[in-house]
Specification:
By secondary structure, the protein is an all-alpha fold. The protein has helices at residues 2-13, 22-33, 35-41, 66-90, 97-105, 108-133, 142-146, 149-167, 171-174, 182-192, 194-216.
Length: 217
């Protein structure tokens, strides 16, 4: 997962404690690479797909914007995770990389909280990203039209499982997570939804651009 690697790399390089631990990485891969992968595989073909030109059999999987799509959204989720990680310190009046570093190193409870926010933002952000990737050309509302119920099951179950490992005593101890208050939840959800918001803006931009081109034509 690009976001996991980038977030870990960037924060460790600048001297901060790792935002995620091993069990977090394993858990995110579990809830984002299992049912979501099946749900995306069950998604109906895009409308007008037969109007596309045949693809060159020798071109790679990252052709036609695949690289930008993969790394672009990976970068967006990475930024969201890093902001979530820093937000715990910011909400306690601590700013600046050196101050945040000292704050987390000397306060295990706050580091615990910061890691939980980063972990949750990554997990839920990937689930929102799944909704956008159900159709890269159209709004995610097409998921409702296509009636891909597995998509809803994967999304809702993923959210519930994430709540389970954060809010349920005993299980949260295993996953080394902390309970989040309502402000932390609002911030985490707001950051998690970023990839879907960007997807909708890109779809809107392309729609307006194509509409203007058709008028000129």
């Amino acid at each position: 997962n690009i976001a996991e690697v980038l977030a870990m790399f960037i924060l460790i390089v600048i001297g901060l404690p790792a935002p995620l631990i091993a069990i977090h990485l394993l858990w995110v891969n579990l809830i984002t690479d299992s049912l979501p992968a099946i749900a995306l595989g069950m998604q109906p073909k895009e409308d007008g797909i037969m109007n596309d030109k045949p693809r060159d059999p020798n071109e790679g999987v990252f052709a036609h914007g695949g690289t930008l799509l993969t790394f672009g959204y990976g970068f967006i989720i990475t930024v969201a995770v890093i902001i979530a990680y820093f937000s715990c310190a910011w909400m306690n009046g601590v700013a600046g990389i050196s101050n945040v570093k000292e704050f987390y190193l000397n306060n295990a409870v706050m580091l615990h909280q910061a890691r939980t926010m980063a972990f949750t933002t990554l997990a839920i952000g990937e689930l929102f990203h799944m909704l956008g990737m159900s159709d890269v050309r159209h709004s995610f509302v097409h998921v409702f039209k296509d009636k891909n119920y597995m998509m809803f099951i994967a999304f809702v179950l993923g959210i519930l499982l994430q709540l389970l490992v954060i809010e349920v005593p005993g299980i949260s101890d295993v996953f080394s997570t902390a309970n989040l208050d309502y402000k932390e939840w609002l911030l985490t959800i707001g950051l998690s939804i970023l990839p879907l918001v960007v997807h909708e803006l890109v779809v809107l931009y392309n729609y307006i651009k194509n509409k203007n081109l058709s008028k000129k034509g």
